[in-house]
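To: structure subgroup
Subject: Chain for Friday's discussion

All,

I'm putting the inputs and outputs inline so they're searchable in the archive.
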Amino acid sequence: MNAASADQIRALAQRAKVCGLDQDPTIALDLRQVIATANRDQRLLSTEELQRCCQWSGVDCAPLVSLQDLVPALVDRSRSALLSDEPDLVKPGGKLHPQERADACWRDCFHFLRVSIYGIALKRTEITDREGMVALAELYSLLDVPVPALLRALAHLRQNSMQTYAGLSSADHAKALGETLEHISNMIRHVMKRHEANNL
């Protein structure tokens, strides 16, 4: 990698952003600041932060606290499901080989579920930052991220998370979580398709 490409990657990484909730004017300003801080730190919400968001939105907080505790396990389960279906992905020549590429895929899945939980806590399913997603598409393209494999992992994560949340909360809330993760998937497809068309 030359110096110019390294600089380009750093610049895109700074602009790439999935979560746009902190820019949503329909959400209380103090809660937008909570989301902005948590998202900047790339972390799940604290129990207190979840309670504040849920008190504002009217969403039952306890199931979301429980769901957050299960996020690492849900990502691991989705990883196992994908690799059970497609074990060659992580073998030499596979789209998720070497290990660093696979780790990046699972890490992205964690972040997609993390920001989806932000959305559920605030009763929002369309949570993405449009310009940030465009930058993400550029970054994925530059790094040759295997987006189809990532989307298949995200599909497993969506299904596992919905099933788990349905057991903790209600079918309607689980459906909303599924819609939020599907929104992210659709946005990734959209921005990648547009990026590819612009670079023909």
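Points worth raising on Friday:
The mean pLDDT is 95.
The longest helix spans residues 171-198.

D.
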